[in-house]
Amino acid sequence: xxxxxxxxxxxxxxxxxxxxxxxxxxxxxxxxxxxxxxxxxxxxxxxxxxxxxxxxxxxxxxxxxxxxxxxxxxxxxxxxxxxxxxxxxxxxxxxxxxxxxxxxxxxxxxxxxxxxxxxxxxxxxxxxxxxxxxxxxxxxxxxxxxxxxxxxxxxxxxxxxxxxxxxxxxxxxxxxxxxxxxxxxxxxxxxxxxxxxxxxxxxxxxxxxxxxxxxxxxxxxxxxxxxxxxxxxxxxxxxxxxxxxxxxxxxxxxxxxxxxxxxxxxxxxxxxxxxxxxxxxxxxxxxxxxxxxxxxxxxxxxxxxxxxxxxxxxxxxxxxxxxxxxxxxxxxxxxxxxxxxxxxxxxxxxxxxxxxxxxxxxxxxxxxxxxxxxxxxxxxxxxxxxxx
Length: 388
Prior knowledge:
It is a single chain. By secondary structure, the chain is mainly beta. The chain has helices at 3-15, 26-30, 57-66, 106-110, 149-152, 351-360, and strands at 78-79, 91-95, 100-102, 116-118, 122-133, 136-141, 146-148, 154-156, 166-168, 175-179, 183-184, 199-200, 205-208, 210-214, 217-223, 226-229, 233-236, 250-255, 260-265, 268-274, 287-290, 293-302, 312-324, 327-331, 347-349, 366-370. The termini are far apart.
């Protein structure tokens, strides 16, 4: 044996790990991996093995697996629900400005003798018949009244809105979210990092593996070495623990800060989507509630400003679930985007999402509304009965 070979053998013996650490309790007390002469095969070790030492690639793979990130990346176990859920139960005509007279009969409409007049503001009327008489178009409303076509505006919607949430076959291993604006991701969580990694469009769905605060900016990790500012993404934080006080196996969670809704059954995530909740000062009230009444169609009307400038009249609002006085979960066929506060206190969903939720939910199911940012008033005295 030459001197070089002997030296290498001695060096290996001196630097190789021993089978037992000096402190046999170090594994439990510090969480550090004990030295072991056997190196584990490359893989993921979510619990420390007793017969080998995870090292090198295994440590990296295991660290990422704790965040829900695997190689190769796993797609979300979810699909978009059936488009037929977005099919509207009726057709609508709309006007947003002028007052609109309603008539009890076609003859009264011809004579311009209204039974009532709807105030200026946002109005959607549900129709079941269109009739032309003496070169004038009239619509018959599902409520039984008639309206002259020239004052009522244009028609709307067999299918309302194209956005739908996600239906899950199992609970995902990571949080996730929807882009609510176009944006480029970055290689590091810093504004100095070039925003040129990947381009995402609105409503793109991405996993969210980690978060990091840098100054006033919160960053979301959406892939290996890929970050996006949190303002671009509305995140669902997966939490299969029932809300305190419910002791339920079925519940709906509404996150006002993120403008998301998640549905859980048997401690599994089954559905999630974007919403539009109450805009300042008509906040959606936080709290724990139960669905009190379900109605397939509902007419909603109201005004909260002293000058009634925010008047609205909405016929046949679909798939309504009242849970807190006048506040309800319901379809909003008049909305084009979700992910931002916009309502008078109700939780607005796309019609397809409201339809799915209506079919799933039972009266008595729990609705947990919260705002992790703390920006929504929690004093019950602040809130009135609410509105659409």
